[in-house]
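Cross-posted from the bioinformatics board.
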Amino acid sequence: MNIHIQAGRLIDPANKIDGQFDLYLQQGQVAAVGEAPDGFIAEQVIDACGQVVCPGLIDLQAFLREPGQTQKGSIASEGAAAAAGGVTTLCCSPVTQPVLDTPAVARLVQDRAAEAGNVRVLPLAALTKGLEGEQLSNMVSLKEAGCVGFSNAGFGVASSQTLLRCLEYAATHDLLVFVRPNEPILGSGCAHDGAMAMRLGLEGIPEVAETLEVSRYLLLAEQAGVRLHFGQLSCERSIQMVEQARDRGQQVSADVAVHQLLLDDSFLEGFDGRFHLLPPLRSEGDRAGLRAALVRGGIGALSSDHQPHEAAAKAAPFSVTEPGMIGLQTLLALGLKLVDQELLSLPQLIGIVTAEPAKILGVELGQLAVGAVADICIFDPDQSWKLDSHSNRSQGSNTPYWNQPLTGQVSHTLLAGELVYQL
Amino acid sequence: MNPNRDSLQLQLNAQGQLRHFLTTEGLNRELLTDILNTADSFVDMGAQSVKKVPLLRGKTVVNLFFENSTRTRSTFELAAKRLSADVLNLDIATSATTKGETLRDTLWNLEAMQSDMFVVRHPNSGAAHFIAQHVTPNVAIINAGDGRHAHPTQAMLDMLTIRRHKGDFRELRVAIVGDTLHSRVARSQIHALKTLGAAEVRIISPKTLLPRDVDSLGVKVYSDLGQGLKDVDVVIMLRLQLERMNSAFLPSQGEFYKLYGLTRERLAVANPGAIVMHPGPINRGVEIESEVADGAQSLILKQVGYGIATRMAVMSMAMSGQQVGSELSSLTP
């Protein structure tokens, strides 16, 4: 279908574009920017006057819960939430049942995503079989089955020798290794190990549970010569370690879940299970440190760390609730809070949720040059809305932002030139 | 954004009266003093031949123990009976109720039986808050210990013990000794002591048993027992769970006793007339020397008696506050 997106403010950071340009789409690709190509007849015109037109968002971490935990969410439901949030590409976690450690499961996930047709799903595969930290997964076969990265997803690899071999094997085939650093025993608590956890009597997760794993992976990756991406870092110190490694020339990047820049452990007051997250909400100092790192460019991307749950999973005393919050549909709106708070310009925000994560993944997405895949998000940066039972598309409603005023409403999402969401 | 910031008010009704008793944190000095005064009157009553009062006549109190505790449960049971309540004791194996739905279902079933008060002990921190806020807000909840978080009736009976034997909190130095990391008793004591204006609260623990950032509660932290006990008026020993040795918190009972055991010799550095307390059950020769536990300065057995009076005070106050609260909310459209 030929689509003409009219009179919007086009922000395409990869191509250094920020201005009022029309966009012309043909056969799922960008046909022209600014002037219509010769003989272009629009079958649909989208009036984007007063709106921002940008590449579809790329989220490096979302749990879709399928296969195996469809009481929490499905690829179709969470994909719909992504589309409603302007997210056109997401990396899904290998934590499924069965674990995403075989080409069969990888294909199943992508087939389901294709059937639902609302978001491009790029699977992360397990680094070790069953995420058990003992045997290498079939990384090359998994890559051939569409997996874009390999991760042990917060499960430990106890033996450093095994981990080194995983990293060396990945390096051999130039595969990207994702790390969600949390030393499993030190990190077995349910809240940041600080004054709040002490007062509430909650078992703490100390910073070293994260920083120890960051340093271990960095040192082993340096020896193996593999590319690393740290996902959802929560400690200021972790970011500093990643920046230092990068300064030494190591190929390493990092993302932070957007809510970690807005919330801290003070919100745990009163044992509200919606704030039970993993990685946990850290101290006010960590939050300030992450925000400073964002400003100086030390954070490569913002992720949603979307984790839908059924209501019962959160209806319990804090420590026995399941960790995580939904975030796909609010990724952009929460990012816009950072713009509102003057940490980032609007184009910078769009860059770290589009072009930058695309660069980390090494995919040709997240930009809108002529010939690019027409993954597009159109939003009104000033329109207020609420995530509530009417607007929510996720199967889960577990987020502290439920029913809270948000600014920045997505009006259209296009996936390869097809409209997959319209307000 | 966060409606729970005022959750410390969860235990009060609109008139500022106690309607649940979940934690000593956030309650003001007047209310804590009120509890102590009421408890005092019940202590005196306990000495009489007729020990019952009709304050809870016709009310049903359910003791819900998700964790074993014969001693605490017995004192709650006696307290409820002396207030003329009907009492139901339920010991619920934790394994069957680790899922939230089960806990909620259990409580809703009991609520449907017209229960008026739940006395809850639970292994998870925040369990009593969760029940009061999300499960059965119209049943008065008394926290009989939740995880590491709070054990407010124990703390208040300790405050009663201190007040009856040492008088004005503002002139007292109090030391809490032992495993503060895992201790809900210590947390509740610290909040109560700070609110009641104790001159100084000290924590004496090895680093492995010390909660992070505990100094943010306004306590002084010591790792040496001799230094920490110097010039104190009250020594509160905490119970050491013997399984701590297996999880590498401590090398051995023997070494713990050597460093943190309360002996006559160690107690000598405290002020003359210092009192010794312990929430029980005590491990003789691990936390405390028998001669000290049974000695003239020890109030350990007195504490048990004060426990009944304190629980009677809290139960009668919360029941009355809950009734007023329910009437108020039924009047508001």
